[in-house]
Amino acid sequence: MSSLLVDDIGELVTNSAGEGAGKPLGIRRDVALLVEDGRVAWIGPARDAPAADRRIDAQGAAVLPGFVDSHAHLVFAGDRAAEFAARMAGEPYTGGGIRTTVGATRAASDDELRATVRRLRAEAMRQGTTAIEIKSGYGLTVADEARSLRIAAEFSDDTTFLGAHVVPAEYADRPDDYVGMVCGPMLAAAAPYARWIDVFCERGAFDVDHARAILACGQAVGLGVRVHANQLGPGPGVRLGVELGAASVDHCTHLTDADVDALAGSPTVATLLPGAEFSTRSPYPDARRLLDAGVTVALATDCNPGSSYTSSMPFCIALAVREMRMTPAEAVWAATAGGAAALRRDDVGRLRPGARADLMILDAPSHLHLAYRPGVPLIRQVLHNGVPQCR
Ligand code: NIG
Ligand code: FE
């Protein structure tokens, strides 16, 4: 059994209540953390720290749980930088560019797709992300969705079947047939590699009846539900997610009081994706309204080549604090424990004995610096399953 002691931690964010814990981040000061076999084995005052095989000196810095990015589209080819530039010059975002990426993805080899996932996964890890959900959704044929998920599963336990991203061009005049195909052969080919099913429920993508049918088929074969909902305008997606017991409804940019009430009375997490509003020059979701209503809020990147080509959780935290009136503590919680809640996982997003030893050491004395020093690479070191990651 190998052991590693992270010593001289000035501020430890545990996201766990307990002796000496402050709220809501469960902050402990001047502690050490022992890792054994990839798990947190002990947390306590530095002076009581047990001996260990190896030691990392945090030099009084802040240590946080690794970020849990619960919404990312990493399996794709090509980019849409020109589309981004056009938006910054005034063009609206409609989701129409998804089909551009579908064309490039279908034309790519497995190895090209795998290299992109590996690159983005590594990029995210350098910025503190130690767990990341990965969606399909740029293949939209049986074979291309199945291979997207097969590749995603090489990098994450949280893989999501998003065959219902948009109706591909070849089915444009017969969406009912496409929905039948998604529920039939495509789901059968995808499900062995997927933990979740997702639908883009939005005008121009899938209406509520199609979305309900697809999500129900996924549930019937054991997949958990998540929904892309209320991104581009008000709509039924959030309430559909709540009705089906979704783990998370994502975007939540345009909400009515009824949507907020439905979320507040449910276990469904509202996952906010401020990178998408940044990159589409759209109004940000009203996080304050959700938090004040008692809704559990997560933050995620939505990393994808169209609406949000960032893998940076610190960037999302900074946006959430500056633009969405979340406190720094709320934003850090949402990016760690919130993401874990959105993925219904209790082994990540918190630092307590038994949790996965996924953590980051900051080049800063406090979690506040993540929003206070936007754009600065503050992640000094990342441990994933207790293993220090190369930079
Ligand atoms: O979450 N909204 C739908 N899907 C992605 C965007 C995909 C794209 O533009 O390529 C999203 O924003
Ligand atoms: Fe998305």
TrEMBL record:
N-formimidoyl-L-glutamate binds at residues 138, 304, 306. GO terms for molecular function: imidazolonepropionase activity. Binds 1 zinc or iron ion per subunit. InterPro entries: Amidohydro-rel, HutI, Metal-dep_hydrolase_composite, Metal_Hydrolase. It catalyses: 4-imidazolone-5-propanoate + H2O = N-formimidoyl-L-glutamate. Its EC number is 3.5.2.7. It is an enzyme of class 3 (hydrolase). Catalyzes the hydrolytic cleavage of the carbon-nitrogen bond in imidazolone-5-propanoate to yield N-formimidoyl-L-glutamate. It is the third step in the universal histidine degradation pathway. This is Imidazolonepropionase. The lineage of its organism: Bacteria, Bacillati, Actinomycetota, Actinomycetes, Micromonosporales. The gene is hutI.
